[in-house]
Structures are given as structure tokens and as C-alpha cells.
Amino acid sequence: MLSFLSRYYLITEVNKNSSLACFRFHLQNKVQYYAAIKVLKAGLKTSNLRDTKDRKSQGLPVKLPIPGVNNVIAVASGKGGVGKSTISVNLALALAQNSVHKVGLLDADIFGPSIPTLMNLSGQPEINHQNLMIPLLNYSVKCMSMGFLVDEKSAVVWRGLMVMSAIQKLLRNVLWGPLDFLVIDMPPGTGDVQLSITQNIPLSGSIVVTTPQDLALLDARRAVDMFRQVNVPNLGIIENMSVFVCPKCNHHEHIFGQEGGQSIANEIGSEILGSIPLVKELCFLSDNGQPVVVAEPENPVSLIFRCIADKVVRKLSE
């Protein structure tokens, strides 16, 4: 059965000079419309209707934890091409290496899955007796991706409802547990997939990846604002490609700008979890399915990822 927001179109008009937000719904079910109006007249703000009872009364999907998963971390960017998937993979591996943590990695990019390549995995997942897909495993990290279910050269040409259905299956029809951390590699943007995930499962926190370039920073701010609107705490900012390091002379050049990530962190009262330089080894190893954290554990970039993982664990334990 489709969720309330999947079945109906919602148009919101907010009167900034009044405490009452005026909603106009394109609904077939008028009962839910009047229930929503009743809540609004009671003086409640929609941003605070997050507990189970309120979500049920509004016809919104109830956030149910993924069985056996203790913490879910969303890694987002708002923009493609900033290295978010590479960050997600190496963060997951660093979390698995830093201690005895059990870690999973979900590729939520239905249209452009990258995890199979980055994690050097292929083949379809097996199905257990409970009709759950068993994640593929490499480097001690459980992985699931649409890339395991379709041919790597085939385009996924789906409408929104089909995409959201696929996301539900990747979340609920997979034998994830037991896990200490599930890292979700979010797709670019702030659309259907992001909304579906944030509305259906409780997220422990979000990490926004950006480059120092002004154009990337604009979309990173949108990603930060999206998580703010759905009440998902920000764990920090990761600045990728922060500086180019010449492989011959070790000269450092800020080709995309400088301290852009720090500016966003300052704006939202968060912090820079780490700055990843643009180095040849990271690109080469990623393309060959050998994440730098496991291929070159003593590489300075690997040390940065392990430091980021330490900060994330500490923040989630506070």
C-alpha cells in the first residue's frame, strides 16, 4: 500500500504572518485533509510531527528501524561528481577497521550505482528462507546495490514510484543485521529517494560531502537544509578534493578554492570531519575496486578516513 505522500499530491502555502499554515491538498480522502487541518488549528507545526502517533494521525509512514541495525548514517552531497560514493566506501571501511564494528553499505543511487565497482563486487544476491536478500560481502563490509540486480550496461528507466519501491526493498528486504553501522550512499539531489529514506527509517545522522568550489557549495547547502527540514542531525561536513597534491614535487594547489567546506560548517554550527586531498592514488585505486583504506592503510588519505570514522563514532555515542 502506497504511503500518504505517494498517493496524493500536496501543495503547501504558508502564511508567514500567521501562526496557522494553510494547506491545500489534492486528496481523494477528505478525512485525512480535515485531520491535518485540525492538527494545524491546534497550533502544532508540521516540522514537529515526527513521533509515531502524530505520523499515524497524519497518514504519514511510520519510521521503523531496520532489524538488527543500530545506527544508520546518510552520506549525501546534493550534487553529483564530488566523490560522495568514494567517501562512503572508505568511511564504511574505516568504521569496520577502527574497531570490531560490523558495517553495512547501501547504494541508494538507483540510476547510477557505483558501489559494485568501488567494492569490487558483482553477481546477484542469494535469497534466504525468509525471502530476504543476503548482502554481498567484501573487505568485511556487507553491501547491497541496484547494480547487483541489473546488468551494468543497462539503464534503469523508472518513474518515481518504482524508484521508491526499489528503495523500500533495499531497506526492508535485505538481511542487514546484525550491524553497528549502516552507511547509505545517497544519490545526488533532494528528491524522491531522499524523502523516501528519511521518512521511512530513523537516521542517526547525516554527513554532507562537498568540494571547495562555489558551485558545489550551493548544492551542499541544499542538502544540509533538506536534512534540517526532516529533522536529521548533521554529523559534519567532509571536504573532498580540498587540495591538489602534485605526485612529482608534492606541491599543493587549491584548484577548486579554499575552505569552502569550513564556511558551510560555520553556517550550521557543525564541523569539518576531514578534508580529502585530490591525489592520483585515490582515483586509481577506486576505479580498480581497491579502496585506499584497505589497499594502502598507511597512506595519509587512509589516515584521514580513519580519523573521520573516529569522529563519527564519538558523535553517535554522545
TrEMBL record:
Keywords, in A-Z order: 4Fe-4S, ATP-binding, Iron, Iron-sulfur, Metal-binding, Mitochondrion, Nucleotide-binding, Transit peptide
- The primary site where this protein sits is mitochondrion
Q: Matching CDD domains, A to Z?
A: Mrp_NBP35
Question: Needs which cofactor?
Answer: [4Fe-4S] cluster
GO CC annotation terms, alphabetical = mitochondrial matrix
Q: Does the keyword Iron apply?
A: yes
User: One biological process GO term for this chain?
Assistant: mitochondrial respiratory chain complex I assembly
Where is the protein situated, by its record's location annotation?
Mitochondrion
GO MF terms held by the record: 4 iron, 4 sulfur cluster binding; ATP binding; ATP-dependent FeS chaperone activity; metal ion binding
State whether keyword ATP-binding applies: yes
The protein's matches in SUPFAM superfamilies, at most eight in alphabetical order, are given as: P-loop containing nucleoside triphosphate hydrolases (SSF52540)
What this chain does, per the entry, is described as: Iron-sulfur cluster transfer protein involved in the assembly of the mitochondrial membrane respiratory chain NADH dehydrogenase (Complex I). May deliver one or more Fe-S clusters to complex I subunits.
**What's the family?**
Belongs to the Mrp/NBP35 ATP-binding proteins family.
The protein's name: Iron-sulfur cluster transfer protein NUBPL
Q: Which organism is it from?
A: Biomphalaria pfeifferi
